[in-house]
Specification:
658 residues; single chain; Immunoglobulin-like; elongated
Length: 658
C-alpha cells in the first residue's frame, strides 16, 4: 500500500524527506488493486488521476483530483498524503501539517513514518511540543534505520533545547536602522569597521529584467548618526557582489562573487569555481578594481562569506570543498611572512558539523567567532552561535545565542561592532521598509566579545607633510609576538589599528627611506574602552642629524640592565641597520634631574652602552656605532612633573652619517 512504500523509502539512506512522497506517488501508479486504504473504486480512480497529474508537475489538477477522491471516501488516507506533499513543495507548511494530521486521525497505525514526516514540518514552524510528541511516536516503529534514528535523536535534542529556551528568553530588542540604510529593496550581509564609523552592506537592485543584481552600499556615521548610503564605486558591476568583510581599518574589502569564471567583468574578476572570494584596496577615498584572491584559497568548488581578522593575518570563509566535515564548513587561511596565503585549514569538528555552517564572523578582539549552523543543538534550521578561543589558541564549545535571537526560522549573517555592544542582522520582519532590512540590537553581556580599543591617526612626512602609506606592527611586549600587521592608506596616510585590552604593546611604524617610529601602550588597567588613542605619526627621512626616540627600550629604576621587553625594539633597530648598511648612528642615554648629576651622567652612559653592546652582539659593525650619556643636560620638557620627568628618561639614536 501507499504507506508501505513510504516506509521502504524512509529506510533508504537518501533521507531527504521532501522527495519521499514524490517517489511514493510514482511507485503507487503501478500498485495492484486492493492495496489502498480505500475500497471505493471511484475514489481510487480519482486518486490515480491525481498521481498522473503530479508526475506531470500539474499540481493544481493533482490537488483537484485528490480532493475529489476524498469526497468519494472521507477515510481515504493516500490523497491526504499527496496533498500534504503538494503544500510542502510550495512551502505552505501549516497546510501540509493539516493534511498529515487528517491522515493520522483516520488511522494512526496506517504507517508510523507519517509521524516522522509530520514532526519534520512541525519543527519548521516552531511547534516544538507537537514535534517532540510525534518524533517519539515515530520511535515506536520497529526496525528504524540507524541513519534515520540519528536524525530523530538530533531533532529531539533540538525540541528539548527549544522548549527550554522559549521558557527562558534572552534580552533582544531589534531596531530598524532606518531609511538612511534601508529601502523598499532588500538589504543584507553587513560589514563594519572596528571604529564603528563605516557601514557597508549588500543591496539587491532587482528590476523587471532580473531577479538578482547585488551591489554594495556604504554609509558613514556623522555625529553618531548613519548618513545616507551610496553605491560603492570601483567594485560594483552589472554582476553580483555580496557577503563583504572589511579589514579592521576599512582599507581592505573582501567579498564573494559567483559565476564569473569567464572573466566577463575583467581579467581580475575571473573565477576558479562557482563562487570565489575577491578583494579590493582603498586608496584615498576610492576603491581599486577587485582582484581574485587566488587559487590557494579559491577552488573549483564554492568559497564565500569571508571574514578578515583584525590582526591582518587570517581570512575565515565558508566552502564546500573536499576534506570538510559536512555540507559546508568554516575554513581559514593565514598570510605567511612573504605575504602569500597558506593552504586553507578546516577549523575543526568542535565548530564544523556534518550539516551546514555559514556566515562566519571573527570579531576584532581576535578570539570571538560568531557563525550559523544547522548541525549544533538549537531551535532547528540555522541558528547563530558564539565560540571563543583560549590563550592557547584552542576553540571552546559553541554556545547558542538563545531565543528569541534564534527562532525556528533560519537565522544567520550576524555582525558585531568593534565595541562589542551592538549586533547587526537582516530581517524581513513586519514594520520594515520592504523585503529584508538591516536591524541592530544590543548584545547581552554573556555573548559579547572581548573588549578592544583602537589607535587611529595619520602618517605623514615630517618635513613636507605629504601622507605616507607606512607599515604598522603592533607587538605584545610580554611575548614579543607581532599581534597586528597593517598599512596606512597610501592615498591619505590614514590608519586604524585595533588594540585588544589587558596587554602591553609596542608600536612600530616603518617605511623604506624613513627612520622608524616607535610608541608603547599599556592597556592592563584600561577602564574606558570607548575613548580611542588618536595620534599622528610624522616620519623623518633618513638624513644626518635626525633623531629617533626608542620608546620601547626599558631599564629597571637606577639600573642599566635591559629588560626583556626591550628585545622587540632592539631587534627592530637591528633590522633597520641591516636594511640601511651605510648608516652610522650615535646612541644616547638621558635622565631626569632627580639625584646626583654625576651618577645620572654615568647611568645614562651605561644605558647607551647596553644598547650598543646588544647591537654589536647582533652583528652590527661597531664602526657604525657611537654611544654617549647626556645625563639631564638635554631634557625634552621641563622637569617639573612626574610625567615630564618620565618623558626625559629616554634612549635615542641620531643619524651621524649616511
Amino acid at each position: 500500500m501507499f504507506g508501505l512504500i513510504i516506509e521502504n523509502i524512509l529506510e533508504m539512506k537518501k533521507l531527504f524527506f521532501c522527495v519521499i512522497p514524490f517517489i511514493s506517488a510514482v511507485s503507487y501508479a503501478q500498485l495492484p488493486p486492493g492495496q489502498y486504504s480505500s475500497s471505493n473504486k471511484k475514489a481510487i480512480s480519482l486518486f490515480e488521476e491525481a498521481v498522473k497529474y503530479y508526475q506531470e508537475r500539474n499540481d493544481d489538477k493533482a490537488k483537484e483530483e485528490a480532493l475529489k477522491a476524498i469526497e468519494k471516501d472521507a477515510n481515504f488516507i493516500e490523497p491526504h498524503l499527496l496533498i500534504a506533499e503538494l503544500y510542502d513543495s510550495k512551502n505552505k507548511v501549516k497546510e501540509a501539517i493539516d493534511e498529515y494530521v487528517k491522515a493520522i486521525s483516520i488511522n494512526p497505525n496506517f504507517n508510523m513514518s507519517n509521524f516522522y514526516l509530520l514532526a519534520e514540518l512541525e519543527i519548521k514552524i516552531g511547534k516544538y511540543d507537537d514535534a517532540k510528541k510525534d518524533y517519539e511516536r515515530f520511535f515506536k516503529k520497529p526496525h528504524i534505520n540507524p541513519d534515520i534514528k540519528d536524525i530523530v535523536d538530533r531533532q529531539l535534542d533540538n525540541c528539548n533545547f527549544a522548549i527550554e529556551a522559549i521558557k527562558h528568553p534572552v534580552p533582544f530588542d531589534p531596531k530598524n536602522m532606518g531609511e538612511a540604510i534601508n529601502s523598499e529593496l532588500e538589504e543584507y550581509f553587513p560589514a563594519i569597521t572596528a571604529d564603528d564609523q563605516l557601514f557597508l552592506y549588500t543591496r539587491n537592485n532587482r528590476n523587471d529584467k532580473t531577479d538578482l543584481q547585488e551591489d554594495f552600499y556604504v554609509s558613514k556615521k556623522v555625529n553618531g548618526v548613519w548618513g545616507k548610503s551610496t553605491p560603492v564605486t570601483g567594485i560594483n558591476t552589472p554582476g553580483n557582489e555580496g557577503a563583504p568583510s572589511f579589514s579592521a581599518d576599512g582599507e581592505l574589502l573582501f567579498f564573494a562573487a559567483c559565476q564569473e569564471m569567464d572573466g566577463s567583468y575583467g581579467p581580475s574578476r575571473k573565477g576558479y569555481g562557482s563562487c570565489d572570494i575577491f578583494y579590493s584596496q582603498k586608496v584615498g577615498d576610492k576603491w581599486t578594481k577587485a582582484y581574485n584572491i587566488g587559487p590557494t584559497i579559491n577552488s573549483k568548488d564554492w568559497e564565500t562569506q569571508p571574514s578578515f581578522s583584525s590582526d591582518g593575518k587570517t581570512l575565515y570563509f565558508i566552502s564546500n570543498r573536499k576534506g570538510g566535515q559536512g555540507k559546508s564548513d568554516i575554513w581559514y587561511s593565514t598570510l605567511n611572512a612573504n605575504g602569500a596565503w597558506e593552504l586553507p585549514v578546516n577549523i575543526g569538528n568542535k565548530i564544523n558539523t556534518p550539516e551546514k555552517e555559514e556566515s562566519v564572523f571573527i570579531h576584532p578582539d581576535g578570539k570571538t567567532l560568531y557563525f550559523s549552523s544547522s548541525g549544533h543543538v538549537g531551535m532547528g534550521g540555522l541558528d547563530i552561535y558564539v565560540v571563543r578561543k583560549d590563550d592557547n589558541g584552542e576553540w571552546g564549545t559553541p554556545r547558542n545565542l538563545g531565543y528569541p535571537i534564534n527562532t525556528y526560522a533560519d537565522d544567520n549573517s550576524l555582525l558585531v561592532n568593534g565595541a562589542g555592544n551592538l549586533a547587526y542582522f537582516a530581517s524581513s520582519r513586519a514594520g520594515g521598509y520592504g523585503g529584508l532590512d538591516m536591524y541592530q540590537f544590543e548584545l547581552y553581556d554573556d555573548i559579547r566579545p572581548g573588549k578592544i580599543t583602537y589607535l587611529k591617526g595619520k602618517v605623514y612626512d615630517a618635513k613636507t607633510k605629504a601622507p605616507l602609506g607606512a607599515r604598522f606592527e603592533l607587538i605584545d611586549l610580554q611575548s614579543s609576538k607581532t599581534i597586528i600587521t597593517s598599512d596606512a592608506n597610501s592615498g591619505n596616510g590614514e590608519f586604524l589599528v585595533t588594540l585588544p585590552v589587558n596587554k602591553n604593546y609596542a608600536l612600530n611604524v616603518s617605511m623604506a627611506g624613513y627612520l622608524f617610529y616607535s610608541e608603547n601602550f599599556s592597556l592592563k588597567e584600561l577602564t574606558d574602552v570607548t575613548q580611542p588613542f588618536k595620534m599622528d605619526v610624522p616620519l623623518q627621512l633618513i638624513d644626518t642629524g635626525n633623531v629617533v626616540e626608542l620608546k620601547n627600550i626599558f631599564f629597571e629604576t637606577a639600573k642599566f640592565d635591559l629588560k626583556p621587553e626591550s628585545k622587540v625594539e632592539l631587534d627592530k633597530l637591528v633590522s633597520f641597520l641591516n636594511l640601511n648598511k651605510t648608516i652610522r648612528i650615535e646612541l644616547s642615554g638621558h635622565t631626569d634631574n632627580v639625584g646626583d648629576k654625576k651618577m645620572n651622567l654615568t647611568l645614562s652612559l651605561n644605558r647607551a652602552k647596553s644598547v650598543y653592546n646588544y647591537l654589536v652582539t647582533a652583528g652590527i659593525d661597531a664602526n657604525r656605532l657611537n654611544y654617549k650619556g647626556y645625563g639631564d643636560t638635554h631634557p625634552k620638557v621641563k622637569n617639573d612633573t612626574d610625567e615630564n620627568r618620565a618623558a626625559n628618561r629616554r634612549t635615542e639614536f641620531k643619524v651621524i652619517g649616511k
